[in-house]
Specification:
CATH architecture: 3-Layer(aba) Sandwich
Largest sheet: 7 strands, mixed
CATH class: Alpha Beta
Order of helices and strands: HHHEEEEEEHEHEEEEHHHEEEEHH
Shape: globular
Structural class: alpha+beta
Strand order of the largest sheet: 1-12-7-2-3-4-13
Oligomer: single chain
Number of domains: 1
Number of strands: 15
Length: 369
């Protein structure tokens, strides 16, 4: 096996055959209704930031919208089935979501209950994110893991981390991520890139800043401020060519869309606009799938304490990368193991903001490429 080093600023990609993704089951959530006294703000920020909680938000705010929206959220069955407790990281009072984004290149979302049959898309694990809510429920962080990260996949040896998804579905991916990070995964969520487009349209578009003028799929992104509708946001999310660091910059764009969605929903105050709220929740319910423990009590108890979470207390980061290289015919990403250990420790100890202060290059800037 040959290994060829490249600088993190010079990313090249080769064609790599990826295993077929598993299918998602469609088990529906329960019929619990929260009492009318509960308020919307507890989930508003998470609706946009955390794809998994987007789905949970339908359950938690069901009294504001039609009863059937919760039933639209497909459930991924048996995510944690077969995971032995002993090797798993210990449970703590924080809450961690493993979020998977896929890119089927479909016009319509492919992960919700309206897909027939439900399909995770043609690019398993295209986007991997760990979203962590601290013990006090006052701060959150979202860490992107490159899908081509060269890691140990239990039972298969060294592989790209996204291959774990195709080889063993969500349980193997959870096991791989927990082994890599030492962070226990509590919930799992999936969304197709097309789903981002429907959510962007539902909030009336988003505003992002671009460092340098680029174009992708016939869409021009000018240096400075850009207003994006759903279709333009997908072109923005998917761009790799023409970006200085290729996939790493594309990952920053994905986080930037989440941040912009968060800012737009907060600015729109959807709690005061029931029609737009319904449209956003419907778009979410059509686009997202969540593990089958969501809605069965695990997330429900957070509805009051998450009200303390403020958008200003959310940190977006990427896992530090050491270099890019080749493993056989595959282009892979080698993580900076020493600094990654520091990041995982910060994630477990809920000190990610302090880590970002020490390593600002790992954090999402105000104007990504």
């Amino acid at each position: 096996m040959s290994t060829q080093r490249q600088s993190p600023t010079q990313l090249s990609r080769g064609s790599v055959a990826r295993p077929a993704p598993p299918s998602v089951g469609g088990r529906r959530g329960g019929a619990h209704r929260p009492p009318p006294s509960e308020k919307w703000p507890l989930v508003l920020s998470l609706l946009v930031l955390l794809v998994a909680v987007l789905g949970a938000g339908v359950t938690l705010t069901r009294h504001l919208v039609a009863q059937d929206l919760d039933d639209n959220v497909a459930r991924v069955p048996d995510v944690f089935q077969g995971l032995e407790e002993t090797p798993r990281p210990p449970a703590d009072d924080g809450l961690t979501f493993l979020l998977v984004g896929t890119d089927s290149r479909s016009v319509e979302p492919q992960t919700g209950a309206y897909a027939a049959p439900p399909d995770l898309g043609s690019q398993p694990g295209e986007v991997l994110m760990l979203a962590r809510i601290n013990e006090a429920r006052t701060a959150a962080s979202l860490v992107s893991i490159p899908g081509d990260s060269w890691v140990n996949v239990p039972g298969y040896g060294s592989r790209k981390i996204n291959n774990a998804y195709g080889l063993g579905g969500p349980p193997l991916l959870v096991q791989t991520v927990e082994q890599l990070t030492g962070v226990r995964v509590n919930h799992f969520g999936v969304i197709d890139f097309a789903g981002f487009g429907t959510i962007v349209d539902a909030v009336g578009g988003i505003d992002v800043r671009v460092a340098t003028t680029t174009s992708n799929d016939g869409v021009l992104f000018e240096q400075g401020a850009n207003h994006l509708d759903g279709a333009k946001s997908l072109a923005y999310l998917r761009q790799r060519d023409g970006l200085p660091r290729g996939d790493l910059d594309r990952t920053q764009r994905q986080q930037n869309v989440l941040r912009a969605l968060l800012e737009k929903t907060v600015a729109n105050d959807l709690s005061a606009n029931p029609l737009q709220l319904y449209r956003v929740l419907e778009a979410v319910s059509r686009s997202a799938s969540v593990d089958d423990t969501v809605g069965d009590g695990g997330v429900r108890g957070l509805r009051n304490e998450l009200r303390k979470l403020q958008p200003s207390e959310m940190t977006f980061l990427g896992v530090p990368v050491r270099w890019f290289g080749q493993e056989g015919v595959q282009s892979v990403v080698h993580l900076d193991e020493q600094r990654a250990v520091e990041l995982w420790n910060a994630l477990r100890s809920d000190s990610v903001a302090e880590y970002a202060g020490r390593h600002p290059a790992d954090a999402l800037g105000a104007t990504p490429p």
